[in-house]
Write a structure and sequence with these properties.
The chain is an alpha/beta fold and 217 residues long. It is built from eleven helices and five strands, in the order E-H-E-H-E-H-E-H-E-H-H-H-H-H-H-H. It has two domains: 4-121, Rossmann fold (3-Layer(aba) Sandwich), CATH 3.40.50; 142-215, Arc Repressor Mutant, subunit A. The protein has helices at 12-25, 37-44, 66-74, 89-97, 110-121, 142-148, 153-163, 168-175, 179-193, 198-206, 210-215; strands at 4-8, 30-34, 52-56, 80-84, 102-105. The chain has a five-stranded parallel β-sheet with strand order 2-1-3-4-5, sandwiched between helices.
């Protein structure tokens, strides 16, 4: 059976590099490309599942793990491998905690990229050689990742708007729905995140923002 891949990156040169790495070991592979999260969502919404989705975290229009969570919510069983210039072990740990099928540094050579892809296709997790798992008591965010992964695409959109400080009326206008619908989404978000208020929900999400992790703040 022919293997299919989706490469999601806004830089054409890196999309080419990933394509070459895949083709080096799989010359007959079918490779599709997406230069934005929206384009990737369209590619994944057709009902077809890719053998691997290779996703750059730093995409336009999203921050932190938002893009990854949006794609994962479309099909939780779809293997998505993070490909990123951020190699901090804490970022890698949170990516895996959120359900990523692996993490490949952008600094990896073509042979290393090909080996990592082989690993994921065999059903195994691929991680950077430099990765050091945090001590068990040093990270309380794994459970947060599992809770976030339970949100639907619409709930993720509402949560992102809550992070921006929008009121229910403003969110309803942006989504083209009634305020009652927004209130229902907010209630479900609070229930799934196991928090009591909108403010607590925003605080919980900020704990897995890789921009903060990478800067050490």
């Amino acid at each position: 059976m022919q293997e299919t891949f989706l490469v999601v990156d806004d830089h054409p040169l890196f999309r080419d590099a990933l394509t070459l790495a895949i083709k080096s070991g799989r010359p007959n592979a079918v490779i599709k490309e997406a230069s934005s999260i929206e384009a990737a969502k369209q590619s994944m919404s057709g009902g077809d599942r890719y053998d691997i989705v290779l996703l750059d975290l730093s995409m336009p229009g999203v921050s932190g793990f938002e893009g990854f969570l949006e794609l994962r919510s479309l099909d939780p069983k779809q293997p998505i491998v993070i490909v990123s210039a951020l190699e901090d072990s804490r970022v890698v740990h949170e990516a895996v905690s959120l359900g990523a099928a692996g993490f490949i540094p952008k600094s990896a050579r073509k042979a290393e990229l090909a080996e990592a892809i082989d690993t994921v296709l065999l059903g195994n997790l691929t991680l950077p050689k430099s990765y050091q798992p945090p001590p068990r008591d040093a990270s309380g965010t794994s459970d947060i990742g599992a809770r976030l992964s339970s949100l639907t695409p619409q709930q993720l959109r509402v949560l992102n708007m809550l992070r921006q400080g929008l009121l229910n009326k403003q969110i309803a206008h942006e989504l083209g729905v009634g305020e009652t619908t927004v209130k229902a989404h907010v209630s479900e978000i609070l229930r799934k995140l196991d928090v009591a208020s909108r403010t607590q929900a925003v605080i919980e999400v900020s704990r897995i923002d890789f921009d903060k992790l990478a800067s050490g703040t």
